[in-house]
Amino acid sequence: MTHPHLRPGRLRLASYNIRKALGTDRRRNPARICNVIDAMEADIVVLQEADLRLGARPTAIPLTEIAQLGGLRVVDFGQSAKSLGWHGNAMLVRDGIEVGALHRMVLPGFEPRGAIAADLDTPAGPLRVGGLHLGLLRGSRRLQLTHIVDELDRMPARPTVLAGDLNEWSERVGLGRLARRFAIHAPGRSFHARRPVAALDRIAVGAGLVLEDCGVWHAQPAPAASDHLPIWADLRHD
């Protein structure tokens, strides 16, 4: 698998709920997920449901598979030596991006949830990238967004973008706590992968960043690889 080098001034961010590599055909196929990630040619990838739920929460994608992703490496958010992420949230970055401080958040709400953020130094400039997977209940999501914004406020200032499965079916209400600080983009309907009806996956862009383009990745094998289609955005510093 090959990729272009990092492009100065522009970064591609992708977000993908991989459903523990369980496809819409009920087959667990990590290689298929990796094929989708590879094809998007993203510089930074945030994943949701990247780990299995049992025991030590082992990764749903073997590290040997990730090693084939032409230049992407895992950011160390793992909850255990076997995990890829934190509460299932994981991040991959391209070679040439330096990883600084890592932030793991435990989120309030009815279900156990977490969020991640990493301070990155990229050829396009400094960046903080957050990966989110919010709860199924709107009341929980509101508590979680308040907590995330409060946590970000405690961190040193840095251009910030958040991405993930926000689990909000409405494109008009429910994310106000985030919208006060970020421009929220819904690239398109990403769920259910075989017949998309809802824009559950979003990208929130903070001050100092510009979203140049974005979309939902429909190319095969994405419609079969997970119940979500991945989303992507091309970003630059303002």
Q: Could you characterize the architecture of this molecule?
A:
- This protein has 238 residues and is an alpha+beta fold.
- It contains 5 helices and 12 strands.
- A 6-stranded mixed β-sheet has the order 3-4-2-1-12-11, with no helix packed on it.
- The radius of gyration is 16 Å and the shape is globular.
Short description:
The chain is built from five helices and twelve strands. It is an alpha+beta fold and 238 residues long. It starts with 10 loop residues before the first strand and ends with a strand.
Number of helices: 5
Overall radius of gyration: 16 Å
* Proportion of helical residues: 10-25%
As laid out across the biggest beta sheet, the strand order is: 3-4-2-1-12-11
Strand content: 25-35%
E-strand count: 12
**What order do the SSEs take from the amino end to the carboxyl end, as H and E?**
EHEHEEEEEHEHEEEHE
End-to-end separation in angstroms reads 32 Å
Mean pLDDT: 95
Low-confidence stretches: none
Overall geometry comes to globular
The biggest beta sheet is recorded as: 6 strands, mixed
Structural class: alpha+beta
